Amino acid sequence: MSIKQNVYDLLTELPSGVQLVAAAKTMEVSQVMEAIQAGVNIIGENYIQEADAKYGAIGDRVKWHFIGHLQRNKVKKAVAIFDMIETVDSVEIAAAVSKRCKEIGKVMPVLIEINSGAEEQKSGVLPQNALAFIKEISRLPGIKIMGLMTMGPLTGEPEQSRHYFIKTREVFEYIKDLNLTGVEMKYLSMGMTNSYKVAIEEGANIVRIGSKIFGPRKTG
Ligand SMILES: *Cc1c(COP(=O)(O)O)cnc(C)c1O
Asked: What is the pLDDT of residue 1?
């Protein structure tokens, strides 16, 4: 299967209202361009250096979502490249992003990464801490909280993810109903190649898909 065909198939399959983020880590500019030509308009990147190189070649013809673990010393670059940071999970990073955005007159849309219970994954805010965390960072002027993101289990059967997606959606709806000032719970980013169908059934409106578009990643 070509990248183009994979994208066409996915875009045909996804219900309207569900946005596709092409998770492009390790992929070359030419591969990302092929996906863009087939209709992808959001690229997800995990690593700042890699994103910077691809952003330099591809630019603003697409939106860029950061989906990796952001480090403090990479915030300035991240703010320059990305249109959304999906993985905010600490006050320190939220404050650093906000501060940099204020300096350059930008407001960064962010999602809060929820550690919905996947054992192998340690980043993210625990579901029971999400409300307090969101309240705390919602006062920061340079970011706008726009929803939640979760990884779920990285391996295993798709059905094993359902529980984690349900839990994240419950937190999403609970916080949405509170109508907190400065918080717009609009996006729920859940699901990858093995789990996106279950994620959509459980309310995801952003799916982050890599290998189903680009083929398996080279390891090592
Ligand atoms: C790599 C990655 C994806 C996509 O994974 P696939 O299984 O290749 O679809 C989604 N989300 C995050 C955060 C990733 O790092």
From this structure: 81
- Give the distance (Å) from ligand 1 centre to CA of residue 57: 22
Q: Which residues contact 115 (CB under 8 A, 6 or more apart)?
A: 89, 121, 122, 123, 124, 125, 126, 127, 150
pLDDT of residue 51: 98
48 in contact with ligand 1, CB cutoff 6 A: no
Q: Is the CB of 123 under 6 A from ligand 1?
A: no
Task: Kindly indicate the confidence band of residue 95, based on its pLDDT and cuts at 50, 70 and 90.
Answer: very high
141 burial via Cβ count (<10 Å: 0-12, 13-18, 19+): exposed
Q: Is 67 in the pocket of ligand 1 (CB under 6 A)?
A: yes
Model pTM score: 0.97
Q: Whose structure tokens read 């309310």?
A: 203
- The DSSP secondary-structure symbol of 60 reads G
Residue ID of nearest Cα to ligand 1 atom 10: 208
When computed from its CA atoms, the radius of gyration of the chain, rounded to whole angstroms, is: 16
Q: For ligand 1, say whether the CB of 43 is within 6 Å of any of its atoms.
A: no
